[in-house]
Specification:
The chain has 247 residues and is an alpha/beta fold. The chain folds into 2 domains: 165 residues, 3-Layer(aba) Sandwich (Rossmann fold); 76 residues, Putative phosphatase, domain 2 (DNA polymerase, domain 1), CATH 1.10.150. The protein contains 10 helices and 7 strands. It has a 7-stranded mixed beta sheet. Strand 4, helix 9 and strand 5 form a beta-alpha-beta unit. The longest helix has 17 residues. The protein is globular, with a radius of gyration of 18 Å. 43% of the residues are buried. The mean pLDDT is 96. The structure holds xylulose-1,5-bisphosphate and magnesium ion. Magnesium ion binds next to loops.
């Protein structure tokens, strides 16, 4: 029985990654670092999940022997998180097509909702506060950032979300946008619906039971990529339940 939906955040709930990139660049500039991550470089760096880990990877590959720089990682990432939070709080980021609708459908049906993400918790809280105003808290569980020992593609963060939900993986569906995120969810035993995002256009989505451009809205169908198709190009809760009951 389908009892829960578990959403990734960056690229899945919203197209956040370019804002993360801009926040990193502003933090670098504010701290007098001459680094600049353009979209092409950032797309490559996204192979490393988690902003702190991404930054550490960048420093290790370009400035391997610079211990002083390595010691500044928490300062740089802390400032990036504050800048990103301010950008999101400005209301720059809407939810992706179909997300708010599917969340509403799930709540109306008693299907529980969770978030499983490598991004830092304050980033999740601000995104949700901006997009679900008036104290509305649609997600029963949030598992984020350093709460898991290992970031995606390890399954830890999805395992944590499932534990907190008290739901078995076969009774839930994960929604993801990246190769590493899909790997993470599959290794936690979850079936995965993939919604491609701007920064994952070239990602392999292997293992997902269905891959689409986005969840779709009535009158604004998504593009089907592979796997299970959705009537009228819209992923609905009833469609997900029908598919889930058939497996
Ligand atoms: C995607 C990420 C995140 C963000 C940065 O996570 O890897 O790290 O790019 O956020 P997901 P932080 O798709 O799992 O949401 O700097 O806070 O780590
Ligand atoms: Mg993602």
């Amino acid at each position: 029985m389908l009892r829960a939906l578990i959403f990734d955040v960056d690229g899945t709930l919203a197209e956040t990654e370019d804002l993360h990139r801009r926040a990193f660049n502003r933090a670098f500039a504010d701290l007098g670092l001459s680094w600049h991550w353009d979209p092409e470089l950032y797309a490559d760096l996204l192979a490393v999940m988690g902003g702190k880990e991404r930054l550490a990877h960048y420093v290790a590959t370009r400035h391997a022997d610079d211990a002083a720089l390595r010691a500044r990682m928490p300062e740089i990432h802390g400032l990036k998180t504050r800048i990103y939070g301010a950008l999101v709080a400005d209301g720059a980021l809407a939810l992706r097509p179909g997300v708010a609708r599917l969340v509403r459908e799930a709540r109306a049906d008693g299907v529980r909702l969770a978030v499983a993400t490598t991004t830092s918790r304050p980033n999740v809280d601000t995104l949700l506060a901006v997009n679900f105003p008036a104290g509305d808290r649609p997600f029963d569980v949030i598992a984020a950032g350093d709460e898991a020992a290992r970031k995606k593609p390890a399954p830890d963060i999805f395992n944590l979300a499932l534990r907190r939900l008290g739901v078995d993986p076969e009774d839930a569906i994960a929604i993801e946008d990246s190769t590493a995120g899909i790997r993470s969810a599959l290794d936690a035993g979850l079936p995965v619906l993939a919604t491609r995002s701007r920064y994952t256009e070239s990602h392999r989505l292997d293992g997902a039971f269905s891959a689409v451009s986005d969840l779709g809205e009535p009158g604004r169908p998504h593009r089907h990529v592979f796997g299970v198709p959705w009537p009228d190009g819209v992923v609905t809760l009833s469609g997900l339940k029908r598919w889930h009951a058939s497996i």
